[in-house]
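hey can u check if this looks right to u? its 359 residues, i copy pasted from the old doc so theres a chance i mangled smth
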Amino acid sequence: MRRVMTRGRVSVTAALALLVGACALAGDGAGSEGESIGDFIPGGSMFSDENWEGDYRRQELEAQEAIAECMAREGFEYIPYVPNYDEGGFGEPQTEEEYVQEYGLGISHDMLSQEFYGEDASDLEDGTEYAVPDEVLDDPNWAIREAMSEDQREAYDEALRGVYPESEYDDMTQEEYEAMSEDELDAMSKEQDALMEGWESGGCYDEANEELWDAGAFETFYEQFGDQLDDIYEEVEADPRIVELDSKWSKCMSGAGYAFDDEEDAVSHVVGLLEEIGAVSVPASPQGAWDYEPKPIEAGSDTYKEVESIFKEEVIIAEASLKCREGAYEIYDTVYKEHEQAFIDNNRAALVQFREENS
């Protein structure tokens, strides 16, 4: 069976869009001269602090309407739907405290909320159903999809999300997956990465969102300035003020009973606990703390209950980390804006030329 894409792919375009959005939302959205990187990317102005609140929901609705038109051309009904974020819709808490209480560090929660859009309960040997998050059930398109036959649903998913490139691992059973060695898992991960290289889904979701984010401008910008954008973050992390923040955080966490040098250590700790119970696999040479692969977990299983227990500890760690980071955001914002403005000042002619050539 073909593997149908169930989530929007993470592309350079999306990553850069998020980067620009983060720049805009950090502080007042401007450097010492009232500038930000988004000012030089056609379409980047949608992420400005001034426009964000009023325009973001409209942008999402525009994308949803485009998806509906695309799906209609494919012969399917799709209802434009945007959750009510103002009331905490789609699991969005209102405060940082509420966020960490609901999501922790963002590791175990995802495993407890896995969505298997391409599987029915009847496909499982014991008939166990996977829990569907409330925010998914609220989407009217969920009911439309659930009323379809299996073949119709597969065609619907393909039209909406596209189809993953076929892999020799697609038909593996859970038992076969769990029996794989670390080297085999690492080889599988590399093969999947190679398959995804340059892949375009062809689904209505990606088509609409690529148009929304002005893909050409964002991707071209990253091709030209990507290395220098990476340098900004390296410079920020090396800034003495940020180094001091990390040192203070580590000492504070030690007082809470956790011997972490930095926040990546905290992530590694949680991932290590999950790896011990077989909930994730970590490659032989991980590229950072977030380099792990979640394994499918059946709701109600022993592994699921163990993940729930780890999630409780993860929330405690996240709450302690939040307290230890109190006041740090403002300092980070100041430091980042200084380095962002330096990047703009040092590359002004090239940035202005890019904006003119891509407008």
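The beta strands are 280-281, 293-294.
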